[in-house]
């Protein structure tokens, strides 16, 4: 019998070409074969070279090699096994015994003698039984003397899945579909409980119908449920339990790669929240976590643009980042740090890869890119791997730069531990930007990249010359075009009021002189710098740049910082006003008490505003902490007031003496007398100093 592991192109041979079975009919000439399609009887001709090319590409196989499922399983076993040597050694041992008995009669006695001689030759201490060798011989001959038939098929060993009752199988399938394959992601134990409940419900109906217990449905086991879930399609399982987007992310596959022809051919842009709390350099209050918009060149991995502010990602922050990328970097010198290397990367990119954030879908951003001939490439939603280079850069900046700074919040609460970022936040925003620029220029641009093998600075210098960098035709100030717009503002003699700041200049005064005392204009302003605003008049060709009157405060001040400073100022003023109000009220009470005491000393009635005054008047003049002795009867108020006033002047200690007659509430009235005490210097009440209320306690003794 011909070995089925070897085949030849000859008449009658069956081959499979692109999934179709063909029968080789004849050979024309020296190199042209005629083949017949078995399903349609269509005749095809192939040259010998064409068939060999299909054979090398795997598109043509000989059908005889795939007929026996045992041989196919043996090939798979040999291909997937990690112990290939063990499998082949075992097969060679079997083949030696089978070859020795192949020409012998199938008699156990004769076979035993041949096995004994073969074991001596192989030095096999444990030769197989003759019946086993005959089984090997049968498999070998039935496969066409194919050695693969002697390969051990270990995957066929082990426990076979037991047959499941059809109703039990139905209950398991129902529980999996209604419980396990849900977005709640229920556990296998809960799924088993549902399946068992379904079986019990059906068994209950069976018993109620009067059927015997032999007809009851077997209860499903955890092993059966787990086995069924294991055989589910993984993508289908994840789609049902986690959603289509998450399933697409988990089972995504790379179908291509970036084709970048050089620098500025493709760039990527995204935002990243800085995991660090910075402070305001004016008030030293924590401002929170800023956001950085970054723009990266894919070919050289050089950073083209960077914009850090407290604004949420918007068209303005994106436009600032694009502006920083388009123009040469001339603002990399800071007083706080010394930056050694220049920021070399700039220029107009041809394509820009971005996500589907609303800031990238604005009409202004699309117009800005259209004006600069930038082709926008939008990634699909929730597909961050479509712009992996910028995602990797943001992660690198977070780990290598941000988390080394004081005030870092780390990327998660577990990494932070008991570290309090607000207590260690000592970096002002200006210093943070300077350190961020230094890290980009002196660390990131000079470190070899793992993908390109070159530092971004070296890659940029090798792949593009300065004269080849595409630039804008007229690099004008883009603030009037990318800033916030206020359509109607009034310009008067005081200038323009904007965000509680005053703006005025001679240019604005000349504009009012031409068009009126009070005119309505349009203003544009940058949230990153409140030092200037731009005034646009419909009859003027160019915007007018108007500075803030308090330029020392507003220059370089962002809107976020300004609002935080204002909120802090309002809070402090509110507390001071409340304290001033309390002190003023305390002063008024003390003055009323002093006036009442003076009237009582002259024999007048000891009242204030028609209400009786408490006896403990010394609280407001001497700073005493007494609790008072109640309200006095108006008829005896003069006597008590005189006695009390006398004791205050002489420095005596008042004593209480009962007066005859009942009081209004049935108790006895009291009269205060003074005991002789050593003379002391009277206290002087003087809470006013230079027209302002003193912040000290007004009960304090003044010498």
List keywords for this structure.
5-stranded antiparallel beta sheet, 703 residues, disordered C terminus, alpha+beta, Nucleotidyltransferase, domain 5, 5-stranded mixed beta sheet
Please render the helix and strand layout as text.
Blueprint: E1 14-17, E2 20-28, E3 32-37, E4 43-47, H1 48-56, E5 60-62, H2 69-80, H3 84-101, H4 108-122, H5 130-142, H6 166-180, H7 188-208, H8 222-230, H9 234-242, H10 244-250, E6 266-273, E7 278-279, E8 286-288, E9 291-297, E10 303-309, H11 315-326, E11 351-354, H12 363-371, E12 375-378, H13 388-400, H14 413-416, H15 421-424, H16 429-444, H17 456-463, H18 479-482, E13 484-491, E14 496-498, E15 501-503, H19 506-515, E16 519-526, E17 529-536, E18 544-547, H20 551-554, H21 559-601, E19 607-608, E20 611-612, H22 618-621, H23 637-650, E21 653-662, E22 668-675, E23 688-689, E24 692-693
Helix pairs in contact: 3-4, 3-5, 4-5, 6-7, 9-10, 21-23
Describe the structure.
With 703 residues, the protein is an alpha+beta fold. The chain has five domains: 14-155, no CATH class; 166-250, no CATH class; 266-468, 2-Layer Sandwich (Nucleotidyltransferase, domain 5); 479-557, no CATH class; 585-693, no CATH class. 39% of the residues lie in helices and 17% in strands. It contains 23 helices and 24 strands. The strands form eight sheets. It has a five-stranded antiparallel sheet, covered by helices on one side. The protein has a five-stranded mixed sheet with strand order 10-9-6-11-12. A hairpin with a 7-residue loop joins strand 17 and strand 18. Helix 4 (108-122) crosses helix 5 (130-142). It is elongated and about 140 Å long. The N and C termini lie far apart (130 Å).
